[in-house]
């Protein structure tokens, strides 16, 4: 509903000042010139060996393409029926298709290797995802394509049993699975954990860090804008904030019902809250991992995470113990992890005493970490596809 306010890739929207914009533009040009040089050097070394088409049929496809790959889409209008983009990375030429008009059988399959991005969060979504899997299976059987990888928005309780029969290891045709949340079957061989990312279904933008985002004092120690469910730890959080008058130091806007779509105003409020607070409180929902974590990182607001396992089948994979957010922890996320919101007052006391200089250092570290995290996920994704899809060099 608020696409005119901030469309992804919309160059006009800038919450920062004009002179900064000029400085940013200049540094962006220097950066792009360097990038061109590197790309040119690389393209002379590496021939494209693999063509991969990504079919984005779930909103996390936009996180993959625009945030992790830094790719663009034409047209820029997020409501367009058909959007596409392409880029070369490593030995691979990627093209990306998304939009309501991308329907099985009604577009040309232009690569022998396909990455399907699907939503498997609930039965209705699974029924839709299954149609795409059957389409891909037909293409494999008729030798139109050779390999299929799947990026899946998993179920929040990690109840993904329906996908198992499609995996190659179980006699199916899907070579690789990248799945969100701490799915117990993650093995780092053919099943990998994938980040949830930002809420692209609410058009959360790709945010470029700015001078003021890094340097300016922020008006609030912390923020929490979200739904407070009955008998949840979020109620405890609210009580603790009210108790010591801490809610006056933080931007708190609680509501009793979850709203899938934001208004222009509520979305702008949310972005402002992230930009204006040093910390972003991340209580668990149905799963410990939430969009808020990545959105806070985008604005240099440090996530304070309730580090507890939620009910369901997540955790306890052969790789990891029963602790949530394994992907982020393995990557050394510089967040504050707490077991109970009772720890919050002490954390906020410490915040009050921190100098701006210390906060700037911390923001720097967070923004840097997040940039590296996305670059690392991209590289891992590309390497995994190339190792799996390219014929091995061995004689």
UniProtKB/TrEMBL annotation:
GO biological-process terms attached to the record: protein O-linked glycosylation via mannose
GO cellular component: Golgi apparatus
Matching InterPro entries: RXYLT1-like, RXYLT1_C, RXYLT1_N
Domain named RXYLT1 C-terminal: residues: 201-390
The UniProt record lists the keyword Transferase: yes
Keywords: Transferase
Record-annotated RXYLT1 N-terminal domain positions: 52-195
Signal peptide feature range: none
A Pfam match: RXYLT1_N
UniProt-recorded name of the protein: RXLT1 xylosyltransferase
Gene from which the chain derives: Rxylt1
